[in-house]
């Protein structure tokens, strides 16, 4: 049998298995991340299922460590509650990438089985373990039963001949393989790598290569652990492991001879990890940012390589370099070795351990049009943001960050390239026709009898990235209890009447613009937050203040129609024709209003 067949047979009570067999495979470690974890729990609860063995079950919060996204924060808290109730271990937001924690903490080992909601769980092939990423229902079933059905894949063997060139990194190895096999020629296969120079690969190098099996379409890229790798695992876990080898008469679907000597440093062009070219074909291409990290290149060896290049150098002007270690232990090791100091001195940003931009997480995303060179495993459109992502090794990313363009460590210029001053952001100014603004308005009133309504209640910070005023109205008051449906029910011309200190809190302009977006004709309050008052006046949103004793004389009820005169300072209840005095526009406010706003 091949390596994967031996592992599956050992975990399915079978003397042997062959490609195409479908068997129930017992799983040694069953993981769920913050991404997908909440759905795993929901599947269990909705189907009345219990956790089979909590000691073999874990949560890993690595996609968004820190919960900076509200939905991630909610899912993480939900999973924490379930974990407490079921005695399940959590590797929380301070821990790092779950698959690396499993390797370093002995949760996976040569010959073991591991599943996770992480599509890169097949990184376990680096240590001769069977790891698989699976969907929420699969993981829920595994948590409940301890095993999962699996179809035994056929195995392809890659036999490496020749010497690996000195300038070819592990990332270059897998990019070369992607260049040869693309995204589908190894689809559905288990792939074994063998050869004299393959045996020399370190644990970190094997991790880098195995982590991109998914991008090749393979089930897994498997290595037989060498004595050196077994020694590395013992240093990390304190445990002695045995290597996992294929039988000498193992049957392979295909065998490919790969000439290691022909491999070159490579870069994957934006959009597809398999769109690979030699670095020289994209050298001198200007970059905006660099990222070193992810499950592919966040090991201490990767950070040492980057630090060796960055030491004594500076990140090029106008370039942002973000570095994210894979685990907290690696982070601390980098700190103790002085690597963090080198990164900071070079001008890089170092974040807490996690998946980072590769999972649209805590750091590492790019914006529209931004060109990033990244050590991640994927550069699909939109995967790491809205820009263009090139994939490369830590050495090439570090060198490129210093140069300001894509290059190799041996070709870093003495002076980095600088951005030119040509405008890249196009003006959208259109000629504005000044129209006479109404100084008397009529409309239906919304009475909101609350003091201190803050800007988060008016327009929550989760929407602050919205810049188009047309999109803002729909979120007005959706964080104000009792008025969550205000935006759905409000009509153009409506008027809001509220109490003291309306608009307390932040300086966000959206808390004003959302009312303009809905066509609200004016706001009346006893008083306003100082910044809010300025923002409203500058945006030509009519706001006025009133004396609560006088307002009571008008006999207003929610839903009544009123008339408001901004210049005279009068409010008339159109139901009973009672008119009261309110504070009129002051002169500067009127001038800005008539101008259509400050700008």
Can you offer a commentary on this structure?
This protein is an alpha/beta fold and 599 residues long. The protein has three domains: 3-262, Aconitase, domain 3 (2-Layer Sandwich); 266-411, Aconitase, domain 3 (2-Layer Sandwich), CATH 3.30.499.10; 440-594, Aconitase, domain 4, CATH 3.20.19.10. The protein is 29% helix and 18% strand. It contains 20 helices and 25 strands. The chain has a seven-stranded mixed beta sheet. Strand 14 (289-292), helix 10 and strand 15 form a beta-alpha-beta unit. Helix 2 packs across helix 5. The longest helix has 17 residues, at 70-86. The radius of gyration is 30 Å and the shape is elongated. It starts with a helix and ends in a 5-residue tail after the last helix.
Short description:
With 599 residues, this protein is an alpha/beta fold.
Number of domains: 3
| Total helical elements | 20
Mean pLDDT: 94
Biggest sheet character:
7 strands, mixed
Which strand order do you get reading across the main beta sheet? Answer: 22-21-20-19-23-24-25
Morphology call: elongated
Q: Name the CATH superfamily classification of the largest domain.
A: Aconitase, domain 3
- Residues in helices, as a percent range: 25-40%
Give the class from helix and strand content and strand pairing: alpha/beta
Q: Tell me the CATH topology of the largest domain.
A: Aconitase, domain 3
CATH class of the largest domain: Alpha Beta
Percent strand: 15-25%
The counted number of beta strands is 25
For the termini, the CA-CA separation is 75 Å
Radius of gyration based on Cα positions: 30 Å
Low-confidence stretches: none
Corresponding CATH architecture of the largest domain: 2-Layer Sandwich
């Amino acid at each position: 049998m091949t390596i994967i067949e031996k592992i599956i047979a050992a975990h399915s009570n079978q003397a042997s298995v062959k490609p195409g067999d479908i068997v129930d495979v017992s799983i040694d470690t069953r993981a769920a991340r913050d991404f997908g974890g909440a759905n795993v729990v929901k599947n269990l609860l909705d189907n009345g299922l219990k956790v089979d063995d909590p000691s073999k079950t874990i949560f890993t919060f690595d996609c968004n460590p820190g919960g900076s996204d509200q939905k991630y924060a909610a899912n993480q808290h939900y999973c924490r509650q379930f974990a407490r109730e079921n005695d399940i271990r959590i590797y929380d937001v301070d821990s790092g990438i779950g698959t690396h924690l499993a390797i370093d903490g002995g949760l996976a080992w040569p010959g073991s089985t591991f599943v996770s909601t992480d599509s890169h769980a097949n990184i376990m092939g680096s240590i001769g373990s069977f790891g698989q990423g699976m969907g929420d229902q699969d993981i829920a079933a595994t948590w409940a039963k301890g095993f999962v059905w699996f179809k035994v894949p056929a195995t392809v063997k890659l036999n490496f001949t020749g010497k690996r060139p000195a300038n070819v990194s592990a990332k270059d190895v897998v990019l070369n393989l992607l260049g040869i096999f693309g995204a589908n020629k190894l689809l559905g296969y288990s792939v074994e790598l063998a050869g004299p120079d393959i045996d020399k690969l370190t644990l970190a190098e094997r991790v880098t290569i195995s982590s991109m099996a998914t991008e090749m379409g393979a089930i897994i890229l498997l290595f037989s652990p060498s004595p050196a790798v077994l020694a590395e695992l013992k240093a990390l876990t304190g445990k002695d492991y045995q290597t996992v080898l294929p039988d000498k008469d193992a049957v392979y679907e295909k065998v490919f001879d790969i000439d290691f000597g022909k491999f070159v440093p490579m870069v994957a062009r934006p959009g597809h990890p398999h769109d690979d070219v030699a670095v020289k074909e994209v050298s001198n291409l200007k970059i905006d940012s660099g990222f070193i990290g992810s499950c592919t290149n966040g090991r201490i060896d990767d950070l040492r390589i980057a630090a060796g290049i960055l030491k004594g150098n500076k990140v090029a002007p106008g370039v942002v370099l973000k570095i994210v270690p894979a685990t907290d232990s690696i982070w601390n090791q980098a700190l103790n070795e002085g690597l963090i100091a080198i990164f900071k001195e070079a001008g890089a940003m170092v974040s807490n351990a996690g998946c980072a931009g590769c999972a649209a997480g805590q750091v590492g995303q790019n914006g529209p049009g931004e060109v990033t060179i990244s050590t991640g495993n994927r550069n699909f459109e939109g995967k790491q943001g809205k820009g263009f992502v090139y994939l490369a090794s830590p050495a090439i990313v570090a060198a490129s960050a210093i140069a300001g363009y894509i290059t190799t460590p041996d070709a870093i210029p003495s002076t980095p390239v600088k951005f030119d001053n040509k405008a890249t952001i196009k003006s959208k100014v259109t000629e504005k026709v000044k129209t006479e603004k109404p100084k008397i308005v009529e409309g239906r009133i919304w009475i909101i009898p609350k003091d201190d309504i803050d800007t988060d209640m008016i327009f929550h910070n989760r929407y602050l990235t919205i810049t188009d005023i047309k999109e803002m109205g729909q979120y007005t008051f959706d964080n104000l209890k009792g008025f969550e449906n205000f935006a759905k029910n409000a009509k153009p011309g409506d008027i809001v009447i509220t109490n003291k200190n309306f608009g307390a809190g932040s300086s966000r302009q959206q808390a004003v613009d959302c009312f303009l977006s809905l066509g609200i004709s004016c706001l009346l309050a006893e008083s306003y937050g100082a910044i809010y008052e300025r923002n409203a006046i500058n945006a030509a949103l009519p706001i006025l203040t009133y004396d609560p004793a006088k307002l009571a004389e008008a006999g207003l009820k929610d839903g009544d129609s009123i008339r408001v005169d901004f210049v005279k300072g009068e409010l008339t209840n159109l139901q009973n024709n009672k008119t009261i005095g309110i504070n009129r526009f002051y002169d500067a406010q009127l001038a800005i209003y008539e101008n259509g706003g400050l700008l």
